[in-house]
């Protein structure tokens, strides 16, 4: 898995020059007139068989299929098709990147067709909103009041607003995560809020809030005061366990500036035992990101130099096994050279069996 051949680079040098023509989902209808004349076999196929055939199309082609005829449109937009198509092994997760600091517009990369598509996200107002996703469902939360939340299906562009979550109205840090239960078609949204105790630089109020789509209600599952540590904006749910990174609130060595907390959403441990689940990170970490890859926790981050922890010497990928980190890959040096050496120079995300790493300082998207 750590072989260099597992890394693939996809460049987008021409974004700034505008010399590349990107497909837009709003323009895909223009191609359907040419395709419709060739469609005839679907007339003799039952709905369940046609649905199965359509589910194996690339995601971009599914958009086109919905415009062929009324029957195809109804199939593609049906809840059963949307859920069943997410189980098809040929589908690969897309990568979305914003191209504006103000407008919620950007491009999504299809790893199957290796093409970029222009996408306007619904509900979201600016590109600095919090975003979390699971099984094709996307959750948005505004970055100002952190009280506006929406759950959206980007394919159908159907959005649902959620009630304002409980807890502090204005928190210093918030970590958003969403988890979809494919068996029940339900979902949970979790928010970890962290707010500094007034007049105390080392103590932080931490609270965990959970939304259940079946009951359509929020519940505060934990409130606790952390000393010397605070939560941030990074969290993910894997197999019913909420994982989130915590950061040193001052003092301590560089090697001990980050840690991982586990919180079981099913058993919901009582107040006062949260720090017992603390797991130190494997190295001096920068740009740490948590990901759910087939219900296994993966962490991607920059590896800080021993003498200068704020400068990274490489990018690593780790798998959490029990309470131990196992390094499964490290970015080859020839790819890392294009990322620069300073902190906060890259973003990463992943799901299923793909990890994307985007360089802010170079026109490159790496796929592992």
Automatic annotation (TrEMBL):
Keywords annotated in UniProt: Ubl conjugation pathway
Domain of life: Eukaryota
Gene3D superfamilies: 1.20.1280.50
Any one Pfam family match given in the protein's UniProt record, by short name: F-box
Keyword Ribonucleoprotein: no
UniProt keyword Phosphoprotein present: no
Domain F-box: 39-86
Pathway the protein acts in: Protein modification; protein ubiquitination
Organism: Sesamum angustifolium
Record's protein name: F-box/kelch-repeat protein
């Amino acid at each position: 898995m750590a072989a260099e051949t597992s890394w693939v680079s996809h460049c987008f040098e021409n974004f700034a020059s505008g010399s590349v023509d990107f497909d837009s989902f709003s323009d895909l209808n223009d191609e359907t007139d040419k395709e419709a004349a060739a469609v005839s076999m679907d007339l003799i196929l039952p709905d369940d068989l046609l649905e199965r055939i359509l589910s194996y199309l690339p995601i971009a082609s599914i958009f086109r299929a919905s415009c062929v005829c009324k029957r195809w449109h109804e199939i593609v937009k049906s809840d059963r098709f949307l859920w069943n198509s997410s189980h098809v092994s040929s589908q690969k997760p897309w990568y979305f990147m914003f191209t504006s600091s103000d407008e919620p517009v950007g491009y999504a990369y299809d790893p199957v067709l290796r093409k970029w598509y222009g996408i306007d996200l619904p509900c979201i107002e600016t590109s600095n909103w919090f975003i979390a996703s699971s099984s094709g469902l996307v959750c948005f939360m505004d970055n100002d009041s952190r009280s506006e939340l929406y759950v959206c299906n980007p394919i159908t562009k159907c959005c649902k607003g959620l009630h304002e979550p409980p807890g502090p109205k204005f928190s210093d840090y918030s970590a958003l995560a969403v988890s979809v239960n494919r068996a029940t078609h339900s979902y949970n949204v979790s928010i970890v809020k962290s707010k500094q105790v007034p007049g105390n630089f080392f103590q932080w109020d931490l609270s965990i809030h959970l939304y259940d789509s079946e009951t359509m209600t929020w519940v505060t599952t934990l409130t606790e005061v952390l000393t010397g540590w605070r939560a941030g904006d990074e969290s993910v749910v894997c197999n019913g366990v909420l994982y989130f990174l915590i950061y040193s609130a001052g003092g301590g060595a560089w090697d001990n500036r980050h840690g991982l907390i586990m919180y079981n959403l099913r058993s919901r441990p009582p107040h006062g035992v949260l720090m017992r689940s603390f797991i130190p990170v494997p190295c001096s970490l920068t740009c740490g990101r948590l990901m759910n890859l087939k219900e296994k926790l993966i962490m991607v981050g920059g590896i800080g130099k021993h003498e200068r922890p704020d400068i990274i010497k490489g990018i690593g990928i780790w798998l959490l096994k029990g309470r131990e980190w196992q390094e499964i890959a490290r970015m080859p040096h020839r790819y890392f050279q294009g990322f620069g050496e300073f902190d906060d120079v890259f973003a990463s995300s992943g799901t299923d069996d793909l990890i994307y790493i985007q360089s802010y300082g170079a026109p490159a998207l790496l796929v592992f």
